[in-house]
Amino acid sequence: MPARTVADLTVLPRIPAPDGPRVGVTERGVRSLTTAPQGYEGEGFPVRRAFAGVDLALLDPFVHMDQMGEVEYAPGEPKGTPWHPHRGFETVTYLLDGTFEHADSHGGGGSISDGDTQWMTAGGGVLHIEKPPESLVVSGGLFHGLQLWVNLPRAQKWVTPRYQDLRSGAAALLTSADAGALVRVIAGEIAGHAGPGSTYTPMTMAHASLEPGAELHVPWDPEQNALAYVLSGDGTAGAERRPVRTGQLVVFGPGESLRVAADPGQDGWHPRLEVVLLGGRPIREPVAWGGPFVMNTQQEVREAMVDFHAGRLGAIPAARV
């Protein structure tokens, strides 16, 4: 897993233990624990549906998340998605292993690889494609990533589409109080250290790698919800030290801090506990979700589909056909 790493964690800023200088900090407990079912997306790459079976009200402002892979492709096997529309939300693609190319109907595009994040605001509407580069298709190789859908408030659903290509080197790097965890802050802020992602809704996104036996206890904005998704490994979460494992989503209850810890023994394939931490200030608006559109009403979803078929969400650039 070559997402950005550091050889010596002791040189990084440390996240102060929330139960240290402050007294009476409420640690979040586990409200729910679910296991992501497995399926296929696009032209056939394997995914885990991280939010399946969870009430959208508990996830707000997030609506969907897929763990893509982890899969070792043989030559000729790597797959992506065909051209498809989006409106009303943002897609956040975080790549841990491999390379992905993206392009849109506005002429934007580029590639992301190990540890990079591509943040696309669909806004009023865009056509989009994601696929592995031809070199990866020919050679095969490891592919592993995450795609998160972040809802937009009603007032921003019609903004002009935009991209943020966030390179791995831009993430804020922190370590836990015991220097046993590497925390990459992609968006929002943890212990006063901000990530590079610009968001319409206040939110936090971080990727933490915990060495066996390490513990991560971080302060958390009480106005934001809190989620932890286990990319790989075994550990515990919450004030009650609930056991968690690969492919499970923790929804935390209220509080001012959260805790995850890695079991002392990890398997040979995944030597660390890898966890994505998410939090957001709930939008608390009606959500009408239909396929690639996330709007406030079903009428708006139908209008988005009509606009797509009428070509009003853009056209595939001639160079990309």
Structural overview:
- 7% of the residues lie in helices and 45% in strands.
- The protein is built from 3 helices and 26 strands.
- The chain has helices at residues 56-59, 134-139, 298-309, and strands at 30-35, 38-41, 45-49, 62-73, 84-86, 89-97, 99-104, 109-113, 117-121, 126-131, 141-151, 162-166, 172-175, 181-187, 189-190, 193-194, 203-210, 215-219, 227-232, 234-237, 242-245, 248-252, 257-262, 273-280, 288-290, 293-295.
- Strands 1-22-19-24-17-14-13 form a 7-stranded antiparallel beta sheet, with no helix packed on it. Strands 2-3-4-11-6-9-12 form a 7-stranded antiparallel beta sheet.
- The protein is mainly beta and 321 residues long.
- It is globular and about 55 Å long.
- The mean pLDDT is 91.
- Residues 46-150 form the Pirin N-terminal domain.
- It comes from Actinomycetospora aeridis.
- InterPro entries: Pirin, Pirin_C_dom, Pirin_N_dom, RmlC-like_jellyroll, RmlC_Cupin_sf.
- This is Pirin family protein.
Summarize the structure.
7% of the residues lie in helices and 45% in strands. It is mainly beta and 321 residues long. The mean pLDDT is 91.
How many structural units, i.e. domains? Answer: 1
- Assembly of the depicted chains: single chain
Binned strand content: 35-45%
| Largest sheet: number of strands, sense, barrel closure | 7 strands, antiparallel
Q: In sequence order, what are the helices and strands, one letter per element?
A: EEEHEEEEEEEHEEEEEEEEEEEEEEEEH
Q: What global shape is seen?
A: globular
Superfamily at the CATH H level?
Answer: Jelly Rolls
At CATH's second level, what is the architecture? Answer: Sandwich
Helix content: under 10%
| DSSP strand count | 26
CATH topology: Jelly Rolls
- Please tally the helical runs, counting DSSP H or I stretches of 4 or more residues: 3
The strands making up the biggest β-sheet line up spatially as 1-22-19-24-17-14-13
Helix/strand-derived category reads: mainly beta
Low-confidence stretches: none
Mean pLDDT: 91
Terminal residue distance: 33 Å
For the record, the CATH class is Mainly Beta
* Computed Rg: 19 Å
